[in-house]
Design goal:
With 220 residues, the protein is of the alpha+beta class. 17% of the residues lie in helices and 37% in strands. The chain has helices at 41-44, 76-81, 138-141, 173-178, 196-205, 212-219; strands at 8-18, 33-39, 52-55, 58-66, 69-74, 92-96, 116-125, 130-135, 149-152, 155-162, 166-171, 189-194. The strands form two sheets. It has a six-stranded antiparallel β-barrel. The protein has a six-stranded antiparallel β-barrel with strand order 7-8-11-10-9-12. It is globular and about 45 Å long. The two termini are 34 Å apart.
Length: 220
Amino acid sequence: MFTGIVEELGEVTAVEILGDSPPAGTEGAPGRSARFRLRGPVVTDGAGHGDSIAVNGVCLTVVDTADGEFTADVMAETLHRSSLGALTVGSRVNLERPMALGGRLGGHLVQGHVDGTGTITERVPGEHWEIVTIALPPQLARYVVEKGSITVDGVSLTVVDATDDHFTISLIPTTLALTTLGIKQVGDPVNLEVDVLAKYVERLLGPGGATGTASEGAVR
């Protein structure tokens, strides 16, 4: 579990694409995985094999660490569902270690399970902040509400406003300086993780949910 408070702006130092064959019965599915090496002296301090580190909001498992770098395997499904497939050597990435039990929850509850990708459609700089508009898939729009929480490339942010196909966020100078959101351009993809609480509420109150007819009537 993460909080969406980026600890370090890291860098991809190596990418090895692995031309895997899809498992039987999954013809047509993405057929390649990758191994990334990433520089992140802060997040690798004390990290070891099997630990988790969020990379642009995607929870990855550490294979090994050395000299301030770590390697992680990324399966085909993750490359297909997130923006990690677009990373190349030299790409900057947001890095965060899992929240320690009993630690401060500085952002909001973030699982590191990306729900989909969005696209930056507009950046409007201001004197002390910048307003960024992001288009998102229709199936995610119902989970995004004004003043609610959303994770963008692993950064916990508050939604300024939301419509059926986009939302806006306001970025302070610290976020612009210390995360990839300061260097992403219009047209660039970003990883999105919506508030997990919204998904659980929808599941519980929907048809066939554990709460049954009584809850459905209450919602109406």
